[in-house]
Amino acid sequence: ILTETLQMFSRESVDPQHKGWYLDGEIKEAWDALEGVIPVSAECKLALDGMYHHKCEMWLEDFTETQEADGRQKKVGQVQKKDEQNDDAFANIWQNIQATKIKRGEAVDLGKVANLDSFDVEAALRDKTEILAVDKGLVGGLADIRRMKMIVPPGVFIPALATVAEGSSNLADGYVSFIGAKWRNGTLVDHALYTICIQSKDYFGSSAIDNDKVRENKDRVYHELLDIPFGKNRLYCVATRLEKFAKRKISEGHKSMPYVSYPVDAGKLLPSMMSTLDERRSRHEKMAKGAIAFKFDG
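Above: the chain sequence. Below: its structure as tokens.
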């Protein structure tokens, strides 16, 4: 489905010494893990209702370390920037949000997270604790998929859970989650939750993919906190026009490819509609069809 229908591809280096481009280790592991996986999915009302749009931002507060001028390390958060704007709309957000503590490395029943121990979000932010905020509806849908995964009759098709992020998430823009199965010599060897994490990028004209900025999102998508809702089988990809994958901006220190390429205009699935959507989202096309220009005479 990914390689033939959607024309997704991974860009490996032809240089065995990795002097040129090579695939990021986490991306390669996730891409290779999908080999032989057959989507069997499981019944989920959210999936049957169609595309689900998150009702709140999904955000990872990771407190990335930055270097001070004197050589000391400091941790800088992401979400707190909103509170620093003294916006009344965010004054009580952390007091009212549902917060659940989960033990590192333990399997989690998402349907019972509300009954687990809670924590003070404001205090956790002050202590520079890593926090993941996830849409409740998405968590409920993923819980349904996991709970129903073993009782779907063979041959019954149930669509994957496709969701779109809300606002300026610092993770991916969309997610497709499904139960995938692997058989070896007629024996079921794997039956787990898989998620394709899609980063949508609009590039027009001579603009290029900024691999360093994409890598920041990729690193957050592979943070272990995302194992809680999505499991450990996550593939991060960038969706844009095919021609843009030949244009990349990188820093000298990073040569690995931090994503799988998803050329939205090259796939076999609704290619004409994708091209039409691509054109309509182009600012030049929108200007040409929807703007009027003025100037003074003389």
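Confidence is low (pLDDT under 50) at residues 13-18, 66-87.
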